């Protein structure tokens, strides 16, 4: 009978294979996939790195590593992705929440005092990562979450259940503001902003596994901002703000788009890499 594999041995060979392919975080990827395959916590793995791994778990791990070697992101293999300290379900219908988007959370929270109610809308919510994180952080807030994709909205609903914020969330299948009513203290969005012609140059784990509809911003990548800017003012409460995530180098053009619809650029927020990642606007 074959001896059981040791966790450390499985990790070492997986890490080498991933390294050889030039993956950015081979040790982390291997560890997360082994934890999932073997049903182990991080603490358990650290406490006993040489622990034996049952044959079925080891086989599952090897399948996970094969998928990773073919470019599939860890989050898609696991169906889970951490964002702002909470875990979200992801599916092929949703954009993987990115660390860059945590910039938008920090920005929005500065306008959401913890002791005051706040009503906001998240346009193109996907997994719901933005809106649901804010609801979890601010117990008095209420949110409308929209997406054009019913599959994505189903994922957002599941995540709302998972985070225990369902009672304060409404879900609307809509393209931007279509069919939306009322006024909001915050209008938030991380819309698709990649110019169509650039899509084929994106890394395989983005290009092959994120939904195109969540990436493709049209010929110049700015189409969704024009749609949002054109109607945002009529949905904004008197002291309200619009905050959007943007792509690298898009700040000036997007500020011009909003200015044309009487929304005044107020703030810029940088991501950890130092790129302007979010823009904030107020009423004139
Ligand atoms: N930040 C994503 C990327 O660069 C794009 C997400 C978007 O278009 N909103 O892959």
In short:
The protein has 284 residues and is an alpha/beta fold. The protein contains 11 helices and 11 strands.
Protein traits:
11 strands, binds glutamine, 284 residues, 38% helix, 11 helices, seven-stranded mixed sheet, two-stranded antiparallel sheet, 2 domains, elongated, Helicase, Ruva Protein, domain 3, alpha/beta, Rossmann fold
Secondary-structure map:
Blueprint: E1 5-6, H1 7-20, H2 26-38, H3 42-47, E2 52-53, H4 55-69, H5 74-78, E3 80-83, E4 86-89, H6 102-109, E5 118-123, H7 129-137, E6 141-147, H8 150-163, E7 169-173, E8 184-189, H9 204-207, H10 223-232, E9 236-245, H11 251-259, E10 263-270, E11 276-283
Parallel strand pairs: 5-6, 5-8, 6-7, 8-9
Antiparallel strand pairs: 1-2, 3-4, 9-11, 10-11
Helix pairs in contact: 1-2, 1-4, 2-4, 6-7, 7-8
The structure holds glutamine (GLN).
